[in-house]
Design a protein that fits this description.
Largest sheet: 6 strands, mixed
Number of helices: 9
Bound molecules: adenosine-5'-triphosphate
Pfam families: ABC_tran
CATH architecture of the largest domain: 3-Layer(aba) Sandwich
Protein name: ATP-binding cassette domain-containing protein
Helix content: 10-25%
Organism: Acetobacter suratthaniensis
Keywords: ATP-binding, Nucleotide-binding, Transport
Number of domains: 2
Oligomer: single chain
Strand order of the largest sheet: 6-7-8-3-9-10
Order of helices and strands: EEEHEEEHHHEHEHEEHHEEEEEEEEHEEE
CATH superfamily of the largest domain: P-loop containing nucleotide triphosphate hydrolases
Number of strands: 21
CATH topology of the largest domain: Rossmann fold
InterPro entries: AAA+_ATPase, ABC_SmlMolc_Importer, ABC_transporter-like_ATP-bd, ABC_transporter-like_CS, P-loop_NTPase
Shape: elongated
């Protein structure tokens, strides 16, 4: 089921800035989208508006091209799991899962046998077949999240909205539950929007990442496109550690101010003027310094990871982290300069095209 959000606006009393300012978003059928952004960007506000849980003052939300007016219009089609959407503590896992079916009007409610069968199916699907009789207090965090997901899926929704559902889980459980969630999404043919604070989680699980800032969408792209071409300096920094090298573009070459960094070619379309090159530490490479160029003398080792050693050097007033393969490090450092030709270029905070 596709989701189309068009020019959505939400205002709050006593607040001048809109919580959502003309947000538009198209999520095709079967897509898995991660919604990321700093705290207060409007992610939860947008998700709740899509779910129909909060009012909005302008714009529309459509499912499969049908404009949805309120939460009842979405009933049964949209399942949601919110971080604070706790299980009912006085009900077993099975009754929690059945809840959405139990409260249906009599005419639409399946028989008791059919409901119990559906609960059994969902417990199987969640890989917790024996926990139907357990009360929430007895379940681990990961098991509770599976029950909450089962409850959201009980009515057979085609859209799943998840707001930080794994926030409280430890990193190992979190990693395994998210790949399981992705499998589930694929198997059930769902359309899923996941709000997460964890960039790695977003890049790992989603086929599209939507970055929000100040109640607006600043970029909507695949993980690969987002990494290769962040639209703004903010997006570049938000998605992971980045190092900035201010400099000048002159006739198709970027010349960083830092003397340790080699100039590099940029597309002819980038006009001359000041610019900032931004790069991930693992993309920085060492190359032999050109004759007459300042060369690296030393860098402080800072531990190792995955066969690479982490270094930090101080140059031109700021520290530059980078990684080198662990073999042959020492002679690679001496007399070297930094190659940052894999950097993205920005001007006034926006990507240079
Ligand atoms: N009902 C409301 N009335 C007034 N302000 C609100 C209301 N709901 C949210 N806000 C404000 O709107 C902004 C966006 O909040 P929202 O919860 O959507 O952000 P978020 O991106 O989900 O943040 P977080 O990552 O911290 O959960 C925040 O500044 C918040 O204080």
């Amino acid at each position: 089921m596709s989701i189309e959000v068009s020019a959505l606006e939400r205002f709050a009393p006593g607040r001048r800035k809109p919580l959502l300012s003309k947000v538009s978003l198209d999520v095709p059928d079967s897509a898995f989208v991660a919604l990321v952004g700093p705290s207060g960007a409007g992610k939860t506000t947008l998700l709740r508006a899509i779910a129909g849980l909060d009012p909005y003052q302008g714009g529309t939300v459509s499912l499969d091209g049908q404009v949805m007016k309120d939460v009842s219009a979405r009933a049964g089609q949209v399942g949601f799991v919110f971080q604070n959407y706790a299980l009912f503590p006085h009900m077993t896992a099975a009754r929690n899962i059945a809840f959405g079916l139990d409260i249906l009007p009599a005419a639409r409610r399946p028989t008791r046998e059919r409901i119990n069968e559906r609960v059994r199916e969902l417990l199987e699907l969640m890989q917790i077949p024996d926990l139907g009789g357990a009360y929430p207090a007895r379940l681990s965090g990961g098991q509770r999240q599976r029950v909450a997901l089962a409850r959201a899926l009980a009515t057979g929704p085609r859209v799943l909205l998840l707001d930080e559902p794994f926030g409280a889980l430890d990193p190992i459980v979190r990693r395994s539950i998210r790949s399981w969630l992705r499998d589930l999404h694929d198997r059930l043919g769902l359309t899923t929007i996941l709000v997460t604070h964890d960039q790695e989680e977003a890049l790992d699980v989603a086929d599209r990442i939507v970055v929000m800032q100040d109640g607006q969408i600043v970029q909507d792209a695949s993980p690969v496109a987002l990494d290769r071409s962040p639209a703004t300096e903010f997006v570049m920094e938000f998605l992971g550690e980045a190092v900035s090298f201010p400099g000048d573009v002159r006739s198709g070459r970027m010349v960083p101010h830092d003397p340790l960094v080699q100039p590099f070619a940029v597309p002819e379309t980038v006009v001359d003027g000041s610019a900032v090159a931004m790069i991930r530490p693992y993309e920085i490479q060492l190359v032999p310094a050109q004759p007459g160029q300042e060369a690296l003398l030393k860098a402080a080792p800072r531990g190792a990871r995955n066969g690479y050693r982490h270094y930090v050097l101080n140059s031109a007033g700021h520290s530059i982290p980078f990684f080198l393969p662990q073999d042959g490090v020492d002679h690679a450092l001496e007399g070297a300069a930094l190659d940052v030709s894999r950097a993205r270029l920005f001007r006034d905070g926006l990507a240079c095209l």
